[in-house]
Structure formats: structure tokens, C-alpha cells
Design a protein that fits this description.
Structural class: mainly beta
Low-confidence stretches: none
Order of helices and strands: HEEEEEEEEE
Mean pLDDT: 89
Radius of gyration: 21 Å
Distance between the termini: 59 Å
Oligomer: single chain
Number of helices: 1
Helix content: under 10%
Shape: elongated
Strand content: over 45%
């Protein structure tokens, strides 16, 4: 049987194209074979997030997929001179990396500044607000926050 190099190359390309590829992410991260992950937070550039309110400058990026972390979700969010109403159907912890984040609820304001942590329990109807610029890490449980 004569098999040409061209046929072998074609078969190899087909096999390789069917193999799963590592997900590409728009930031620097290292995933150890154990599953432990490190992320260079300063390389994360969140994508626009539609709050439903024109003129809001809100951006977020989840840092892990549901396949990578089906129980706990987390990402980076940025807000610039914006506020929007939100009802959380999940627990959330926010760690303020930069700026100031205000959470308004029931006529009260909870403020977090650089280095502060804010916990928001499930079923809270709040207003996220950044009077200036705010960048924060959010951690949510369950991970599939968008479908709760």
C-alpha cells in the first residue's frame, strides 16, 4: 500500500483539528496540572456589560468558566461614574481593588474603598454605584450567577 506524504499530512491535520483546545482568555493566567490557577489581575481588561441603562460605563469579565469552576464564580468588574439597580439571586463578595464602590439598599449606603470587602447576601435588591472609578473582584455562589 502506497500512502503519500500528502495524504498523511491531510489525515494528521484532520485529527489535530478535532482535538479540544485550551480556552483562550484575554488575560494572563497559569493553570497548574492540579487545577490551581493564578491570574495576573492587572492584565484583566473587562468587557462592556449592559446594565439596561444607557450611558452606564460598566465592564466585567468572568475569570473562570463553569467547566473550570462549577460551584464558585469570580471575575473583575469596573464601573466609572455609573450606577444601576440589581437583584442578586446568589451570594456575592466584592473586594475593592481600586476606587470606591457603594452599595445602596433600603435607603442605606455601604461603602467599600481600596482593600475593603463587601458581602451581599442572596435575594438582595441593591444599587451598585461608583461615584468615580471602581475596580473590584467579585466572587459569587453559585457560579452560574447569570442564570439564577
Amino acid at each position: 500500500m502506497n500512502i503519500s506524504e500528502e495524504l498523511i499530512a491531510k489525515i494528521v491535520k484532520q485529527v489535530i483539528s478535532g482535538l479540544p483546545t485550551a480556552p483562550t482568555v484575554p488575560f494572563e493566567r497559569h493553570v497548574d496540572s492540579s487545577g490551581i490557577m493564578s491570574i495576573k489581575t492587572n492584565t484583566v481588561k473587562p468587557a462592556p456589560f449592559d446594565t439596561g441603562k444607557p450611558g452606564d460605563n460598566v465592564f466585567l469579565t468572568d475569570l473562570v468558566s463553569l467547566e473550570e469552576s462549577p460551584r464558585l464564580g469570580f471575575g473583575v468588574m469596573e464601573m466609572d461614574h455609573s450606577s444601576f439597580d440589581w437583584t442578586l439571586r446568589y451570594d456575592e463578595v466584592d473586594y475593592v481593588i481600586e476606587g470606591r464602590l457603594d452599595i445602596h439598599i433600603n435607603g442605606n449606603r455601604v461603602t467599600g474603598e481600596k482593600g475593603d470587602i463587601i458581602f451581599i447576601p442572596k435575594n438582595s435588591s441593591i444599587t451598585f454605584s461608583a461615584p468615580d472609578f471602581s475596580r473590584f473582584l467579585y466572587c459569587v455562589y453559585p457560579a452560574d450567577w447569570a442564570n439564577q
